[in-house]
Amino acid sequence: MTQDSFSGRVPLVLGVLPGQHPHVLQTARDLAVSLAAPLVCAYVDEASYLVEWDSARETHRMSLHPGKADADIAAVRTELRSQISEATGDGAVDWTLRLLAGDPARAIGRLADDIQASMIILGCPGPGLGHRISEALNGSVATWLIHHQNRPVMLVPLPRRDRGNSGYLPEPETRIPGEPESGPEKLK
User: How many of the other CB atoms lie within 10 Å of CB of 107?
Assistant: First the structure.
């Protein structure tokens, strides 16, 4: 399940985050099952940077906050493993978790190149102004990958019911078309 070698099968790369909506993981799982492909789940620690990159050996990273980095990374690893295990459930798909460092788009792109992934799967950013500001300041991981990769990038949106009134969808119309705006009790 958490092996790095998948018997020659071409893997899918899935970008994961702590607290990510389970729909993203479940969609990736369903795709991996239908393609009989393993999932390589990738989390990028933006508070770290690479000091050495060797795809044949271990990658070395340094933290921008070295005092607390190891405990934080261990907690994130535990949380992500739990999320992935819960989403993949019955073991129908092989998966592994990779912790990467640096810029998320470039790190995921390097990983996809290194393992010759057939596709990169990402969840769409959550609703709200905070996500929009972050994307405007830091750039979109999906946009960078789409422009710099030679493999497909699949974006998984949140389910309609979980988007709320976040600007993604208009509120459903509650009146019956053809009836007056004020409702039947106001008719005279």
Answer: 25
Low-confidence ranges of the chain (pLDDT < 70): 1-8, 48-69, 126-139, 162-188
> How far apart are alpha carbons 68 and 54 in whole angstroms?
25
**Can you tell me which residue has the tokens 């992934």?**
117
Q: What is the pLDDT of residue 90?
A: 73
Exposed, middle or buried: residue 81 (CB in 10 Å: 0-12, 13-18, 19+)?
middle
What tokens were used for 167?
């600007």
Q: Is the dihedral of CA 68, 127, 21, 44 positive or negative?
A: negative
Burial of 40-74, coded b for 16+ CB within 10 Å and e otherwise, reads: bbbbbbeebebeeeeeeeebebebeeeeebeeebe
> Would you state the structure tokens that stand for residue 179, as one six-digit string?
């009836």
Q: What pTM, to 2 d.p., does this model score?
A: 0.71
Side-chain half-sphere CA neighbours of 92 within 13 A: 15
155/88 Cα distance (integer angstroms): 19
Residue 167: what pLDDT? 42
- Report whether 32 contacts 137 (CB < 8 A): no
